């Protein structure tokens, strides 16, 4: 077990802590399969919402919050039955809009893992307005259930009534619906091609600027971020922040970054070149490699 979870385990019921402990390996980044959840449920006697709430201290341990020292953990429940943890992230030395919120982290985790629909989000503090807006972009926003400690489960529409969302801008689809932008890029570099695949799966219905980031370590670990746009624009989650957050969730030091690659569409109305370089520059000396994909 990775020792970063020691404190969290003391906050769990003993039977749950004993069962989950061997699952918290050095590679653990917050994903538990439906099978693992069944084992946790069988051994702890907790199920459903009780189990998710009990696991929140594990999710909050994935936080990287050097500015606030306020550790938020969230758990996204996929339609598949798997769960995906996320946590807040802050970058010292840059403006606060580079921050990633726990709900954004959990949702992006599920999206990158291939989930196509979320049925609920459990979080240890009440979702902020930014996250309520971010969650409204989800394709299942009308049915998404929010769970908090000491509160009855409520749909997202309870937390954000009269919401402004994708439908107000004429969009039928939402975040987590599949995308293929069918962009191409002339490169034999496998990491560049990986970034292209992720950019093709990104969600940019308003700016029409598909984009993705690949961060690679010298030992060959790869972390990716896809652009996740939002109808209200500002809550959009840029690809660099999503990729850095994927590293943070796994507890990998940013000094391990060896290459950083941005691929974005050549016909979009915006660009991530400057914001991605700024965010990267706070955590790494590595220069951002940038590519325009043909659409
Ligand atoms: Zn938030």
Automatic annotation (TrEMBL):
Domain CMP/dCMP-type deaminase: 47-167, 186-295
Record-level GO BP terms: nucleobase-containing small molecule metabolic process; pyrimidine-containing compound metabolic process
InterPro entries: APOBEC/CMP_deaminase_Zn-bd (IPR016192), CMP_dCMP_dom (IPR002125), Cyd/dCyd_deaminase_Zn-bd (IPR013171), Cyt/Deoxycyt_deaminase (IPR050202), Cyt_deam_dimer (IPR006263), Cytidine_deaminase-like (IPR016193), Cytidine_deaminase_bacteria (IPR020797)
The record's free-text note on cofactor binding: Binds 1 zinc ion.
Catalytic activity entry: cytidine + H2O + H(+) = uridine + NH4(+); 2'-deoxycytidine + H2O + H(+) = 2'-deoxyuridine + NH4(+)
Similarity comment text for this entry: Belongs to the cytidine and deoxycytidylate deaminase family.
Protein name per its UniProtKB record: Cytidine deaminase
């Amino acid at each position: 077990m990775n020792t970063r979870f020691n404190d969290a385990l003391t906050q769990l019921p003993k039977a749950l802590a004993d069962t989950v402990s061997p699952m918290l390996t050095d590679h653990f980044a917050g994903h538990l399969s439906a099978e693992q959840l069944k084992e946790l449920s069988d051994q702890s006697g907790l199920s459903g919402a009780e189990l998710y709430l009990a696991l929140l201290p594990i999710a909050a341990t994935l936080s990287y919050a050097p500015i606030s020292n306020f550790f938020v953990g969230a758990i996204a429940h996929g339609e598949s039955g798997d769960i995906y943890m996320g946590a807040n992230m802050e970058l010292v030395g840059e403006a606060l809009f580079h921050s990633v919120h726990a709900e954004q982290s959990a949702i992006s985790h599920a999206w990158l893992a291939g989930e196509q629909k979320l049925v609920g989000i459990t979080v240890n503090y009440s979702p902020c307005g930014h996250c309520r807006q971010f969650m409204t972009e989800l394709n299942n926003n009308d049915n998404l259930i929010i769970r908090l400690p000491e509160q009855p489960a409520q749909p997202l529409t309870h937390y954000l009534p009269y919401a402004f969302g994708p439908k107000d801008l004429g969009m039928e689809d939402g975040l987590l619906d599949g995308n293929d932008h069918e962009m191409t890029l002339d490169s034999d570099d496998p990491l560049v091609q990986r970034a292209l695949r992720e950019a093709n799966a990104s969600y940019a219905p308003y700016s029409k600027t598909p984009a993705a980031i690949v961060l690679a370590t010298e030992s060959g670990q790869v972390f990716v971020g896809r652009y996740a746009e939002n109808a209200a624009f500002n809550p959009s989650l840029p690809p660099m922040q999503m990729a850095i957050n994927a590293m943070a969730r796994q507890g990998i030091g940013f000094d391990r970054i060896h290459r950083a690659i941005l691929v974005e569409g050549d016909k979009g109305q915006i660009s991530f070149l400057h914001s991605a370089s700024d965010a990267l520059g706070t955590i790494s000396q590595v220069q951002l490699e940038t590519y325009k994909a043909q659409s």
